[in-house]
Amino acid sequence: MGLSDPVVLFFLLGFAASLMKSELKLPASLYETLSILLLLAIGLKGGVELAKQASWALLGQSLAVLAMGVILPILAFPLLRVFGFARADAASLVAHYGSVSVGTFAVAVAFLAAQGVSFEEYLPLFVVVLEVPAILVGIVLAKGISRDTDWKALGHELFLGKSIVLLIGGLLIGWIAGPTGVKPLEPLFFTLFKPLLGLFLLEMGLIAASQLGSLKRYGVPLVVFATVMPLVSSVVGALLGLALNMSVGGVAMLATLAASASYIAVPAAMRMAVPEANPSLSLTASLGITFPFNIVIGIPLYLQLAQWLAANL
């Protein structure tokens, strides 16, 4: 996004404060409130657009995006095994990278708006679609189809976790209420979106810096994976967006979704399903390396990729 963008600067402030052992910390209740507002804002925007554009074509696009969420972790898993990661750790990592980061999506929304680049407003639907398949693939890669897996509890975590409920709830509210019904909510959820995102990223910076301690143990292979995987995934996402005849902004957003890594829904699900996997490994990669990489370098790069593909293919 560029280091001069305010939301990036908020993230860097938190990151630097944590590295310098500052006492800066947002109240847990404020962080929870910001998360809820951002998730609902993304869902509402998508729901309003869904009310305008719901179609069989959109269903076909959603299925194609779901397939991407299955393929990306399967492709990444052998690479991590070659790097020497244990089977459970490799499976947990690829589940994080096959899923999505709502925070990264929110930053991309703000970035494209600042650049004056429009995109298909139903893309929050794809955020929901991409949350689940990678988790299921990760579980199968870790242990196969096991009788020991509590699928009922896991299903509850997958489909009734906070992020999914808020995103789907926002989508449904926006869809049912439509543009006119949602209009009174715009000052809070739409006008204040970027200030809320800035505060959210301040806390994300604090958390991301706290995860870097695991680098002392896992070192170069983890850094290589956490920076190369987003680049590879972004190309897959961009090509899929192009194949689905999306706009330049839509291609950039789908590339961003593919390049992002979950640090909310997937850690909770994998802790339940694959307890032997090291959670600090996945959080260091997704939140400590990939998230900062994407918001500082990746998102502008994915927009350039989308523009290049539109001009040359």
UniProtKB/TrEMBL annotation:
Which positions, given as ranges, span the membrane?
Answer: 54-80, 92-113, 125-146, 158-177, 189-210, 222-244, 250-269, 281-303
What are the alphabetically sorted keywords of the record?
Answer: Membrane, Transmembrane, Transmembrane helix
- Output the InterPro entries linked to this UniProt entry: Sbt_1 (IPR010293)
Pfam families the record matches: Sbt_1 (PF05982)
Q: Which domain of life is it from?
A: Bacteria
Which PANTHER family does this chain map to?
A: SLR1512 PROTEIN
Q: What is this protein called?
A: Sodium-dependent bicarbonate transport family permease
